[in-house]
């Protein structure tokens, strides 16, 4: 592996090593499943201490870009879950099912809250009215991939606050209790650092990159049913789309 180290730089050496490994991943020189050099070999090639190499590797493990397998070594792990951005609206659970990926969902928090101005405007309900706040994590192979924060208009689907949402699709339950189909959603995507609170839930350092989706789901043009935020591990999730040239 070719990693350049400048010991006169203000950037800590371990961070330079981590940056160099990231660049090798981004360029394709290191790909999903590749084993990186052993710590002793990297120490010898780079002329640094084992503690420095280990610190760099730990940074990338926390980001989810590397994983250690006992007795085998340290391996690259790249994004492996796709979310299609096409004309049809799917929930994240539905896209995992379509890719035949086994997953589990755990409810962290589920309670009725009083709507502030932002939530009231997004759900088209009066300020102070109750809405259902639902916070869940979704995991694949015992690794948390996403944090989901839903805010649901309980007037449109009465009784939804009583549902146990461990491994139950929110969209399906909304349609069942609302007795009609969801029509469309408006979504925005933003890349940012995950921060302390959500980083702790996702097992990431506060500065780790995250992909945030903000989405409002509608039963009809004037009936927003859900206003949600989905925090996706940037090293595990990627977006796909198909565009027609006219």
Write out key terms for the chains shown:
2 domains; two-stranded antiparallel sheet; elongated; 7 helices; single chain; Chorismate lyase; Arc Repressor Mutant, subunit A; 6-stranded antiparallel β-sheet; alpha+beta; 27% helix; 246 residues
Number of helices: 7
Which consecutive residue ranges, at least 5 long each, have pLDDT under 50? none
The CATH topology of the largest domain is given as Chorismate lyase
Shape: elongated
Annotated CATH architecture of the largest domain: 3-Layer(aba) Sandwich
Q: How many independent structural domains?
A: 2
**Secondary-structure element order, N to C:** HHHEEEHEHEEHEHEEE
User: What amount of the residues lies in strands?
Assistant: 25-35%
Question: Could you explain the architecture of this structure?
Answer:
There is one protein chain. This protein is α+β, with helices and mostly antiparallel strands and 246 residues long. It has 2 domains: 13-76, Arc Repressor Mutant, subunit A (Orthogonal Bundle), CATH 1.10.10.10; 81-240, Chorismate lyase, CATH 3.40.1410. Helix content is 27%, strand content 33%. It is built from 7 helices and 10 strands. It has helices spanning 13-27, 39-46, 50-63, 92-98, 117-123, 170-178, 196-202; strands at residues 66-69, 73-76, 81-84, 104-114, 130-140, 143-152, 184-193, 209-220, 223-233, 237-240. The strands form 3 sheets. It has a 6-stranded antiparallel β-sheet with strand order 4-5-6-9-8-7. A two-stranded antiparallel sheet has the order 1-2. The protein has a two-stranded parallel sheet with strand order 3-10. It is elongated, with a radius of gyration of 22 Å. The mean pLDDT is 85.
């Amino acid at each position: 592996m070719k990693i350049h180290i400048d010991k006169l730089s203000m950037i800590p050496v371990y961070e330079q090593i981590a940056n160099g490994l990231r660049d090798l991943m981004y360029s394709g020189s290191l790909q999903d499943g590749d084993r990186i050099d052993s710590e002793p070999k990297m120490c010898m090639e780079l002329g640094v201490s084992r503690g420095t190499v280990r610190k760099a590797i730990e940074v990338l493990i926390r980001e989810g870009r590397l994983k250690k397998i006992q007795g085998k070594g340290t391996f690259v792990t790249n994004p492996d879950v796709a979310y299609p951005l096409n004309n049809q609206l799917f929930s994240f659970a539905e896209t995992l099912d379509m890719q035949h990926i086994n997953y589990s969902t755990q409810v962290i928090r589920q309670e009725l809250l009083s709507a502030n101005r932002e939530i009231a405007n997004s759900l088209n309900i009066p300020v102070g009215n109750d809405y259902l706040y639902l916070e869940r994590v979704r995991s694949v192979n015992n690794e948390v991939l996403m944090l989901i924060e839903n805010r649901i208009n309980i007037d449109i689907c009465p009784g939804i606050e009583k549902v146990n949402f461990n491994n139950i699709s929110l969209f399906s339950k909304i349609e069942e209790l609302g007795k009609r189909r969801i029509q469309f959603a408006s979504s925005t995507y933003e890349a940012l650092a995950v921060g302390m609170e959500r980083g702790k839930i996702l097992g990431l350092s506060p500065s780790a990159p995250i992909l945030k989706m903000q989405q409002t789901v509608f039963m009809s043009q004037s009936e927003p049913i859900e206003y949600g935020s989905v925090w996706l591990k940037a090293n595990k999730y990627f977006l796909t789309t198909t565009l027609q040239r006219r």
